[in-house]
Amino acid sequence: MSRPLRVRITYCAECGYEPQTLELTGGLMREFGHRLSAIEIIPWAEGTFDVRVGDELVHSMARDGGFPELEMVYAAVRTQLAA
Amino acid sequence: MSTVTEQRFRQGMTFPEWKDSMTRNRDMVEAQERRITLTPEQIAPFRKKPLHVLAIGADWCPDVYGNLPVLARIAAAAPELDLRVFDRDRNPDLMDQYLKEGKFRSIPVMAFFDRDWREVGVFIERPASVTALRAEKRREIFASHPEFGSPDAPVDQLPEDVRARLMDELGKMRESTMDFANAEVVRELTTIVEKA
């Protein structure tokens, strides 16, 4: 049985980041379907756009700047699914 | 330096039209309008010369529904200010002339022009003094609430109930700094018009 893998997206709900959040969420749904155990969306503030795959923070707007490349997030998911 | 023509400027909304176009947070704008009090001395610098003011905003942004009403209240008391408001995402040609640090579409933008359409000065987002005060208050919140963890840690690792309490504390902090923020916006806008 494969290990459950959750992706968590924390976005600034005061910053108009809904389109990027939904684009990433939709992309993950189409790319991985039920191979992900959950995609969790956390509305926050303070200019946040963080993406955590399993326990790993793969993107942080505060740390890395800007929004993540979708392919980078997909690659992180593939790596953890294969582990 | 931006290029804005009179024809392009006239395509903007008046402040009441912008309020009518809002899909959310109109109550926040109107609460701000009621909250802001301006003395004749504060209004006087804005009455010295006719100026056009191009504002760019969006109804989801707290800095817009916090700071744009300050300008609107000044403009209501100073008919020398000719204010037009543009939606950020529908007007990229204007927005991209006013990127914060050359890359961020930060709002509100409030760009002042003289009668010959020479740019006098620009206000973007919020005063640095407000950002600094709120950062200090934020550090104090984390220092007095160890359950919130590190102020630099991603919040998704906090339990939901703790995260909700943190959001409450941040909201109260923002409210407690509102009068300072409004005064600072007036001060920065005054500095701009005094250069005209």
**Strand order, largest beta sheet of chain B:** 2-1-3-4
CATH fold assignment of the largest domain in chain B: Glutaredoxin
Order of helices and strands of chain B: HHHHEHEHEEHHH
What is the domain tally of chain A?
Answer: 1
Gyration radius from CA atoms of chain A, angstroms: 12 Å
Order of helices and strands of chain A: EHEEEHH
What topology, given as strand order, has the largest sheet of chain A?
2-1-3-4
First-residue to last-residue Cα separation of chain A: 12 Å
Q: So what's the overall shape of chain B?
A: globular
Write up what this structure looks like.
The complex is a heterodimer of chains A (83) and B (196). Chain A has 83 residues and is an alpha+beta fold. Chain A has helices spanning 18-32, 61-64, 70-82; strands at 6-12, 38-44, 49-53, 56-60. Chain A has a single domain, classed as Glutaredoxin, CATH 3.40.30. Chain A is built from three helices and four strands; from the N terminus they run E-H-E-E-E-H-H. In chain B, strand 1 (51-57), helix 5 and strand 2 form a beta-alpha-beta unit. Chain B has two domains: 6-126 and 178-193, Glutaredoxin; 129-174, no CATH class. Chain B has a four-stranded mixed sheet with strand order 2-1-3-4, covered by helices on one side. Chain B is globular, with a radius of gyration of 18 Å. Helices cover 48% and strands 13% of the residues of chain B. By secondary structure, chain B is α+β, with helices and mostly antiparallel strands. Chains A and B meet through loops of A and helix 8 of B.
